Amino acid sequence: MAEAFGFVLDFFRRVAATGHPEAVYPIVNWNYMPPSGSSLIHPHLQVFSSSSAPYLMRLELDAAKTYLEQHGTCYWDDLVAFEKTHGERYLKQIGRSHWMTAYAPMGVAGDVLAVVEGTRSTLDLTEADLMALATGLAHVMAEYDKMGIYSFNMNFFTGTAEDRHSRFHLLFSPRTFFSQALGTPDVAPCATFSTRRFAWLIRKKSTPCSRPDSDRSHPL
Question: What is the pTM of this model?
Fold first, then answer.
């Protein structure tokens, strides 16, 4: 995985060096096996640079920018500090990457989030970061495999080099079928819900982990 990510990062840097107008958001998506929405069973990554952020990424970036303007700190740094202190969802640190489970997962089997400190964009990742991410993903995959869950979506979330409110992070979402007989995946209904997570940050702010229907603090 680290070698594949390294190959991809080299591609992104070559594209960025050309000054191409689409070389703004370097993104990697990984859909593994049918429950994740993949159509063919083969190893692959979706790799692209885009001048516009995908919808959920744009919600995150806008909300994190609002958070920075209101609180003077980076939401992602505060989230990592909160989770690390409270420990309920924090898993471990590997290099500069902090691994935790998500409070509001996209899938029925929970999500795992990895935030890389000191980074704003995919292009900020080092070789050591790529190895740390690959190591963490391997551990996560092995644990879900013990539960009989082998399918997942994995997505890179990135800002630009100028986005002080951004921290590179990846989201690992294990996938399964609601109905094995019908082959109905869990993707659509949970994806609809997930788009609301960062909208909460725009509508209501108290802590980096505020929840709209409660005075208690929770991570997203």
Answer: 0.81
